[in-house]
Amino acid sequence: PNAESWHRVTPTVTVTANDAGPSSGITKVLYRLNGDLTTQTATAVPVSGNPTAGDTETAQVTGLVEGRNALEYWAVDGAGNESAHTKANIDVDLTDPTATDSVTPTEQNGWEKAATRVTFAADDAPTLAGARVSGVRSITYSAAPDATKGGLTLANVTDTSTRLTCNNWLL
Question: How far is residue 153's CA from residue 103's CA, in Å, rounded to a whole number?
């Protein structure tokens, strides 16, 4: 993830449960992702009267979506002991923001007679309705003289990790 804990690709999330020996062994690892419960039955099968020397089980978390994912996970051993429930948020933003610009007044044949106002905007709209996204951190633009027409040519570049609108750049 970046410094704000956003993942630009869907991460692999693994829950690991440990039951120190001697133990009855972990019978299941459970997690709830965005409200949906998943139970993964453990592979360790303790033999009656012969507790395992300890047990470690893992569960691969599946079903992460773009936006904020609420994860809660815990484990249960063969004696019915339940670990503490642990919660975490996993933020996924797979969609690049969009950047636009507009010039006012509209140019006439490539030339302006009046002061020109350039407006830049960027949006990091979620692909899923109601999903939280990372937003636009900044908009960066550059201006350079146009060798043919004189004046300035503008190009805008946006940081693809975050939401912002810059209005009223006057040239």
Answer: 12
